Amino acid sequence: MKFVFQSAPRPVDLAPEKWFDWTWQLRSSLKNQADYSTYFQLSTEELNAFAQGSEIFNIRSTPYYASLASKTDVMDPIRRILAPHEKELFDTKQSQLDPLGERKKSNHPVARIVHRYSDRVLFLITDICSVYCRYCTRKHFTGSDQAFIKQDEYAQAINYIKKATGIREVILSGGDPLTVSDAQLERVLTDLRNIDHVEIIRIGTRMPVVAPMRVTDELVKIMKKAKPVFLMTHFNHPRELTAEAAAAVEKFVDNGIPVMNQMVLLNGVNNHAAIVQALSRRLLFLRAKPYYMFQCDPSIGTDYLRTSIEDSLQIQKELWGHLSGLAMPNLSLDIPDGGGKAYYVPQFETEVSRASRKFTGWDGVQSEYINPDASQIIKPADCGLYIEEWNRLKNSKKITQEPLLNHDESL
Ligand code: SF4
Prior knowledge:
Layout: H1 16-19, H2 22-27, H3 33-39, H4 44-51, H5 63-66, H6 77-82, E1 113-117, E2 120-124, H7 151-163, E3 169-173, H8 182-193, E4 200-204, H9 207-210, H10 217-225, E5 229-233, H11 243-254, E6 259-265, H12 273-285, E7 288-295, H13 309-319, E8 330-334, E9 341-344, E10 349-352, E11 356-360, E12 366-370, H14 384-394, H15 396-405
Parallel strand pairs: 2-3, 3-4, 4-5, 5-6, 6-7, 7-8
Antiparallel strand pairs: 1-2, 8-9, 10-11, 11-12
The chain binds iron/sulfur cluster.
Iron/sulfur cluster binds at residues 129, 132-133, 136, 138, 142, 174-176, 206.
């Protein structure tokens, strides 16, 4: 089936030049009760949330993203993402300011760098987002209006990456890295590309979802120059895939920038197999890989938006066998307190022995996989060519310890 993507509704009295200018979208963001009231009939629960002011996670939406949500229905999935709710103030189960453990000193060697995994770092170049998603996992950092990284912190961060020669991937995150100007982004990408050991750059962003007009020819040109750059989008619901968003995704792919999507399973938003398949198939049609289907982290104020692990496993099980491997996102959970990722796959094994394993497949087929004799298993003759590279990867975090002892700020 060929999918058709509808344009987002645009205010009739607004000049298209404004609507399609991403800087106008940011400048005209909805930030308070008065702004939200012009778009929505606010419920008592939403009004109560606005009344809490500083008690509640920062509030913001682009006019474009607000136009995708229902004006009257408080249960509308997109409205649940962008509008604050009084339930954010009443977590009863689990409520963590830093569920990924990013603030622990061991994971946070210098400002704006999170070094949790051995061969990759997160580089938080801004804390600003154009929409503050109510389920955000990084509420300890995001939306505190510090904006683009300060010069001295930037120099320290680049210096850390430069000296930590075990780092292979840098993931630009925030905040939303695509809220910074083209010139700022170009500087970051150029500085990273000039570091020999940085192989891959990823950019994690919601901008193609909440302000797809950000994806201009100039932006794509800058990213293309710094290749290989992967774009990690964050579509959660098929209604977010408007004609404008679809064009943005295709612009990246047409220019050789691979697009991978990371969705979060959210209560009353997308926690149904029918919605996940609809999102995944449309993304794949646009050549964006549905990559992760995350369990929502127990970040402060998210109890009402989280699903149970059982609910997520059920969704995964229903999808299995009906979605191809290309269309199927990986179900994954970040172990609270920074324990790293845990992956889930449906269990098909029914019996395990040294000689074989028995299975019942997704549609009930029962069969057995018989191992060859262990004595016949040999290693590839040329693996020696790659052993040094492999050992280096395994030890990359140790390599990154060295520069901390000899930290020079000469940038
Ligand atoms: S765009 Fe990402 S970082 Fe920003 S509020 Fe949403 S989830 Fe958090």
